[in-house]
C-alpha cells in the first residue's frame, strides 16, 4: 500500500499556484479550494495530505519531519539553510534578491553601509564576498521605506515587477541572486517514502517540462 505524503504548502502569493500544480500532477484534494479557515486537507485515495503554513515556516515543518515535503522560495532556503533535500525547481514564484538604493545615488557612502533587510544571512554573505563593512538593520516588512526615511542607506530585498521600488523612487544597484520556488523533502521521509516522493516529484516535473520546452 502506498504511504501517505504530508505536504507543507506556503500560504500567500505562492499557495494557489503551487496547489494548482499538484492538482495537475494528479494529487488533487478539491476541499482545499473551499472558502474556509481549515489548515489540513486530505485525499486518502491519492495518498496526500496538505497543510497550509506560513511561507517562512515551511522549512521548519519539513526539517523536523512534521511534513515529508514542502515548497519554499530559494530565498528562504538560502537564508535559513535547513537540513533538507532540495528535489526540484518548480519554475514559479520567480523573482530576484537585489540591493536597491534611492534613485540617482550610485556611490552610496564610504563609511559602514547601513542595510535594511528581512534576509540578514544572505545580506551578510553577499557583502562579506565584497569585503564591505555593513550594519544590518533587520526588518520584517515594508523594507523599501527604510532608505526613504533615512533608516538605512540601501536595502536587500525581493524584486519581482519592480513596482514597489519605482513607486518609492528606489532602483536596483546590484543583483544578489535569482529566486524561484523549490520542492524540498525531509531526509528521513525521503528514505522511508522514496517511491511515493519520487513519483510525486516526477509528476510535478512533467508539469514544468512542457512550458520550459516551449521557450
Ligand atoms: N513579489 C514578491 N515578493 C515576495 N516574495 C515573492 C515575490 N514574488 C515571489 N516571491 C516568492 O514567494 C515566497 C512567498 O512570499 P510571500 O510574500 O507569500 O510570503 P511572505 O509574506 O514574505 O512570508 P512570511 O509572512 O512567512 O515572511 C517568497 O519566499 C519568494 O520566494
Ligand atoms: O517588485 P514587486 O513586484 O513590487 O514586488 C516586490 C515587493 O513584494 C514584497 O513585499 P510584500 O508584498 O511581501 O510586502 P512586505 O514584505 O512589505 O510585507 C517584497 O518584499 C517587495 O517589497
TrEMBL record:
Organism listed in the record: Aminicella lysinilytica
NCBIfam families on file: hisG (TIGR00070)
Pathway in which the depicted protein is active: Amino-acid biosynthesis; L-histidine biosynthesis; L-histidine from 5-phospho-alpha-D-ribose 1-diphosphate: step 1/9
Entry comment, domain topic: Lacks the C-terminal regulatory region which is replaced by HisZ.
Family statement drawn from the similarity comment of this UniProt entry: Belongs to the ATP phosphoribosyltransferase family. Short subfamily.
Primary site of residence: cytoplasm
PANTHER family noted in UniProt: ATP PHOSPHORIBOSYLTRANSFERASE, ATP PHOSPHORIBOSYLTRANSFERASE ATP-PRTASE
Gene3D superfamilies: Periplasmic binding protein-like II (3.40.190.10)
Alphabetical keyword list: Amino-acid biosynthesis, ATP-binding, Cytoplasm, Glycosyltransferase, Histidine biosynthesis, Nucleotide-binding, Transferase
CDD domains: PBP2_HisGs
GO molecular function: ATP binding; ATP phosphoribosyltransferase activity
Keyword Hydrolase: no
Pfam families: HisG
Keyword RNA-binding: no
Subunit structure: Heteromultimer composed of HisG and HisZ subunits.
Subcellular location: Cytoplasm
Residue ranges constituting the ATP phosphoribosyltransferase catalytic domain according to the UniProt record: 54-204
Record-level GO BP terms: L-histidine biosynthetic process
Protein name (record): ATP phosphoribosyltransferase
Described purpose of this protein according to its UniProt entry: Catalyzes the condensation of ATP and 5-phosphoribose 1-diphosphate to form N'-(5'-phosphoribosyl)-ATP (PR-ATP). Has a crucial role in the pathway because the rate of histidine biosynthesis seems to be controlled primarily by regulation of HisG enzymatic activity.
HAMAP family, per database record: HisG_Short
Highest taxon of source: Bacteria
E.C. number: 2.4.2.17
GO cellular component, one term: cytoplasm
Catalytic activity field: 1-(5-phospho-beta-D-ribosyl)-ATP + diphosphate = 5-phospho-alpha-D-ribose 1-diphosphate + ATP
Amino acid at each position: 500500500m502506498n504511504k501517505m505524503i504530508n505536504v507543507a504548502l506556503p500560504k500567500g502569493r505562492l499557495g494557489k499556484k503551487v496547489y494548482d500544480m499538484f492538482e495537475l500532477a494528479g494529487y488533487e484534494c478539491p476541499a482545499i479550494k473551499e472558502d474556509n479557515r481549515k489548515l489540513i486537507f486530505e485525499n486518502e485515495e491519492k495518498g496526500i495530505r496538505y497543510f497550509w503554513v506560513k511561507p517562512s515556516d515551511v522549512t521548519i515543518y519539513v526539517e523536523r519531519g512534521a511534513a515529508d515535503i514542502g515548497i519554499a522560495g530559494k530565498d528562504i532556503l538560502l537564508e535559513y539553510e535547513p537540513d533538507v533535500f532540495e528535489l526540484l525547481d518548480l519554475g514559479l514564484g520567480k523573482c530576484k534578491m537585489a540591493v536597491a538604493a534611492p534613485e540617482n545615488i550610485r556611490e552610496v557612502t564610504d563609511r559602514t553601509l547601513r542595510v535594511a533587510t528581512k534576509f540578514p544571512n544572505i545580506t551578510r554573505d553577499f557583502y562579506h564576498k565584497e569585503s564591505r563593512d555593513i550594519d544590518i538593520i533587520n526588518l520584517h516588512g515594508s523594507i523599501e521605506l527604510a532608505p526613504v526615511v533615512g533608516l538605512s542607506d540601501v536595502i536587500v530585498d525581493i524584486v519581482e515587477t519592480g513596482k514597489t521600488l519605482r513607486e518609492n523612487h528606489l532602483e536596483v544597484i546590484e543583483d544578489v541572486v535569482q529566486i524561484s520556488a523549490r520542492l524540498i523533502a525531509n531526509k528521513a521521509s525521503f528514505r522511508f517514502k522514496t517511491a511515493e516522493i519520487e513519483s510525486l516529484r516526477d509528476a510535478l516535473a512533467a508539469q514544468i517540462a512542457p512550458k520550459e520546452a516551449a521557450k
